[in-house]
């Protein structure tokens, strides 16, 4: 990953493929859909572990406005191709009506091996996420920068929550995806490695022991990318609204610039700090933007107050990277809530009006389908 700009970035969005009439996940997806999508939309389209999942990986980006145009075109283009195969595109961390027992893994050697190695954990992995890559200057140690970003991970999760339902039930969490993902090894908040050399040595140890094939099997919430010279944010749920994805990506990009330019501001990196971050991650996956985080002194800070503080911290970086407009959308998220808030509001309204649980969940799916690719956008053909 490279581009002629500072702090270039890329965005990966995972989606579910849904049968619109039943609102259920597709169980068998024609291989020709992916083949045609790659032929028409480029290598940005990728398969995922389950057949009912598909991914858009953006080209390397320098300009937030261009990223919005390109990702919007890719969403619309993929949705149009899915429609021709009787399917629709849905962006959320979990599918409200999804049942993992009905799903089939994608028929590729890598995915077959994952199912063989991880058994029910892999078969239950019916979740979709948002990943953001940011390229740092060559003289910045990516793992040291990652360490300094980790206290902000719970907030970045809270901004993205979109998975309140699991197995046709209200989970009581704003991000059940995070709870489900914790079943996998080498996930969640990583430990504090001294730097890239120590991180690479640990990955090499796991490879020698036969635990992993390569560093790509370190699936932590943030990591140095094994394929690109970037730091990769992995904690966020898939965002139903494209502008939510772009705002979170812009915030992470600005944070990584601030961290790179202010190395003296390093926070403590010890076992207690790491456990504290994980406690705050629990609060984020439980309560989302209503979470109250705390620091080593015990000081409580509501998520929205922490968001304001982070935006003030990176204001100069936002101006330098032309991210001010993208970050303005964070005000929208703070005011209206995340996808999880909207899903729960629809579900509760339908249930209060006498609808059955499944009928209420179908209404949630209808909203998710519409919000993933709004009708006005769907009518606009991709360039």
Rough shape? globular
> SSE order, as H and E?
EEHEEHEHHEHHEEHHEEHHEEHHHHHH
Question: Counting H and I runs of at least 4 residues, what is the number of helices?
Answer: 16
What gyration radius follows from the Cα positions, in whole Å? 20 Å
End-to-end Cα distance, whole Å, is 24 Å
Q: How much of the polypeptide forms β-strand, as a percent range?
A: 5-15%
Structural class: alpha+beta
- The count of strands amounts to 12
Average pLDDT metric = 94
Low-confidence stretches: 378-383
**Largest sheet, described in full?**
8 strands, antiparallel
What percentage of residues falls in helices of 4 or more residues?
40-55%
Considering the chains and any ligands shown, give keywords for the structure.
8-stranded antiparallel sheet, disordered C terminus, 383 residues, two-stranded antiparallel ribbon, globular
Walk me through this protein's architecture:
The protein is an alpha+beta fold and about 375 residues long. The protein has 16 helices and 12 strands. The strands form 3 sheets. Strands 1, 2, 3, 4, 5, 6, 9 and 10 form an 8-stranded antiparallel beta sheet that branches. Strands 7-8 form a two-stranded antiparallel sheet. A hairpin with a 5-residue loop joins strand 11 (about 290-295) and strand 12. The two termini are about 25 Å apart. The model is unreliable at about 380-383 (pLDDT under 50).
What's the topology here?
Blueprint: E1 9-19, E2 24-25, H1 31-41, E3 45-47, E4 53-57, H2 64-84, E5 88-90, H3 109-118, H4 120-123, E6 130-135, H5 142-149, H6 153-158, E7 165-166, E8 169-170, H7 176-181, H8 196-208, E9 222-224, E10 230-233, H9 242-261, H10 271-287, E11 292-294, E12 300-302, H11 303-313, H12 315-320, H13 324-336, H14 339-352, H15 357-372, H16 375-378
Helix pairs in contact: 1-2, 2-9, 5-9, 9-13, 14-15
């Amino acid at each position: 990953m490279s581009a002629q700009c500072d702090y270039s970035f890329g965005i990966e969005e995972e989606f579910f493929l849904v049968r619109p009439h039943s609102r259920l996940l597709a169980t068998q997806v024609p291989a020709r859909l992916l083949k045609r999508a790659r032929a028409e939309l480029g290598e940005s389209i990728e398969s995922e572990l389950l057949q009912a999942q598909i991914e858009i990986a953006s080209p390397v980006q320098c300009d937030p406005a261009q990223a919005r145009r390109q990702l919007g075109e890719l969403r619309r283009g993929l949705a149009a191709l899915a429609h021709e195969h009787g399917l629709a595109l849905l962006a959320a961390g979990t599918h409200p009506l999804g049942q993992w027992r009905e799903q089939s893994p994608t028929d590729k050697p890598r995915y077959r091996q994952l199912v063989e190695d991880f058994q029910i954990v892999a078969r239950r992995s019916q979740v979709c996420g948002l990943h953001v890559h940011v390229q740092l200057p060559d003289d910045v140690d990516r793992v040291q920068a990652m360490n300094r970003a980790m206290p902000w991970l719970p907030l970045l999760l809270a901004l993205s929550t979109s998975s309140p339902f699991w197995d046709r039930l209200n989970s009581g969490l704003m991000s059940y995806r995070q709870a489900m993902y914790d079943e996998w090894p080498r996930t969640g908040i990583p430990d504090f490695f001294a730097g890239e050399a120590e991180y690479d040595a640990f990955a090499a140890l796991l490879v020698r022991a036969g635990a992993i094939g390569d560093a790509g099997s370190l699936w932590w919430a943030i990591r140095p990318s094994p394929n690109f010279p970037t730091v990769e944010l992995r904690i966020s749920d898939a965002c139903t609204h494209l502008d939510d994805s772009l705002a979170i990506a812009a915030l992470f990009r600005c944070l990584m610039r601030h961290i790179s330019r202010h190395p003296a501001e390093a926070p403590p990196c010890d076992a207690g700090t790491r456990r504290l971050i994980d406690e705050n991650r629990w609060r984020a996956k439980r309560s989302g933007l209503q979470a109250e985080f705390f620091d080593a002194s015990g000081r409580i800070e509501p998520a929205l107050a922490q968001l304001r503080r982070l935006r003030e911290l990176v204001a100069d970086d936002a101006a330098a990277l032309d991210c001010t407009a993208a970050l303005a959308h964070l005000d929208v998220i703070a005011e209206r809530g995340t996808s999880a808030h909207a899903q729960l509001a629809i579900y509760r309204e339908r249930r209060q009006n006498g609808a059955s649980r499944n009928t209420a969940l179908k209404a949630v799916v209808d909203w998710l389908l519409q919000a993933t690719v709004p009708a006005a956008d769907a009518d606009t053909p991709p360039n």
